[in-house]
Amino acid sequence: MEEIINYLVPLIQNVGFPITCVLGMFYFWNKEREDHKQELKAVTDALANNTLALQRLSDKLQHD
Predict the structure, then answer these.
(1) Residue 64 pLDDT exceeds 70
(2) Among 12, 40, 48, 64, whose CB has the most other CB atoms within 10 angstroms?
(3) pLDDT score, position 57
(4) Residue 8 near residue 20 (C-beta atoms within 8 A)
(5) pLDDT tens across 2-43, in order?
(6) Cα(30)–Cα(22) distance, rounded to whole angstroms?
(7) How far, in Å, CA of 43 to CA of 60, rounded?
(8) What is the DSSP string of 17-31?
(9) pLDDT digit string, tens, across residues 34-57
(10) Cα separation of 58 and 61, whole Å?
(11) CA 53 → CA 10, 24, 61, distances in Å?
């Protein structure tokens, strides 16, 4: 926590509080976007696997 404070205080003094807040918001938004990209990839993979399983099941049922 002290590292963050040591980083933020000079930043606020040099560019101001509103700009520091915008930079912080951008950082967290970008991190959230990257996390969401990974989550969406996992959901896409699961959907593809389910689609494949359903297709195999459908093919098996049609052949019986």
Answers:
(1) no
(2) 12
(3) 95
(4) yes
(5) 888 888 899 889 999 999 999 999 999 999 999 999 999 999
(6) 12
(7) 26
(8) HHHHHHHHHHHHHHH
(9) 999 999 999 999 999 999 999 999
(10) 5
(11) 56, 44, 12
Residue showing tokens 């938004």? 29
d(CA 20, CA 13): 9
In angstroms, rounded to a whole number, what is the distance separating the alpha carbons of residues 62 and 11? 67
Please report where in the chains the tokens 């689609």 appear, as a residue.
Answer: 51
Amino acid at 30: N
Angle at the Cα of 31 from the Cα atoms of 28 and 35, rounded to 5 degrees: 135
